[in-house]
Amino acid sequence: MGHVLDLRFDGRPGEFFTWAEFERTGTGLPNEAPPAARANLQLLTQQILDPLRRHLGKPIKVNSGFRSEVVNQAVGGSKTSRHKTGEAADIVCPGMSATELVGAILAAGIDFDQVIAYAPSRGGHVHIGLRCGTPELHRHQILWAPASGGYEPYRAR
């Protein structure tokens, strides 16, 4: 069964986030999400980020949302990055470590495809994504990105 979007008329993808937060980049390169990516970002916001924000009771900062192909290349993103389709965001919550934020995601019962907690030396953020239109295919994969590089299965730290 598909998810229904809360159609908003205030120019925002959801309750707590703005389009500018998802399109911001420090590269100086063009990074405007096309309509299909905006629809995916709206699902990401309404199904993951807004519920997480309500659960936490405090702001979440989007470090990286949508990435155009040139931005993704400039930041060394994966060729298959879900950022390029608007299906992922890298987030932080001030005052929380990445592992604490993963714990909050799990405690909130949020449905996701993939969560990656990055070590502080690799940014200390959490990557969270979904598969728009096919939530039944969510892997519920949780990974840890250690300081030494690469990825490994997540275990509570």
Q: Secondary-structure element sequence?
A: HHEHEHEEEE
**Roughly how much helix do the residues carry, as a percent range?**
25-40%
Uncertain segments are none
CATH class: Alpha Beta
Count of separate structural domains? 1
CATH architecture: 2-Layer Sandwich
How far apart the termini lie comes to: 35 Å
The chain-level structural class is alpha+beta
- What is the CATH topology classification name? Muramoyl-pentapeptide Carboxypeptidase, domain 2
Summarize the structure in short.
By secondary structure, the protein is an alpha+beta fold. It has four helices and six strands; from the N terminus they run ααβαβαββββ.
How does this structure look, described?
The chain is of the alpha+beta class. The chain has a single domain, classed as Muramoyl-pentapeptide Carboxypeptidase, domain 2. It has four helices and six strands, in the order H-H-E-H-E-H-E-E-E-E. The chain has helices at about 20-25, 35-55, 70-75, 100-105; strands at about 60-65, 90, 115-120, 125-130, 140-145, 150-155. The protein is globular.
Keywords:
157 residues; six-stranded mixed β-sheet; 4 helices; 6 strands
Task: Give the topology.
Elements: H1 19-23, H2 35-56, E1 61-64, H3 69-74, E2 88-92, H4 98-107, E3 114-118, E4 126-129, E5 141-145, E6 152-153
Parallel strand pairs: 3-5
Antiparallel strand pairs: 1-2, 2-4, 3-4, 5-6
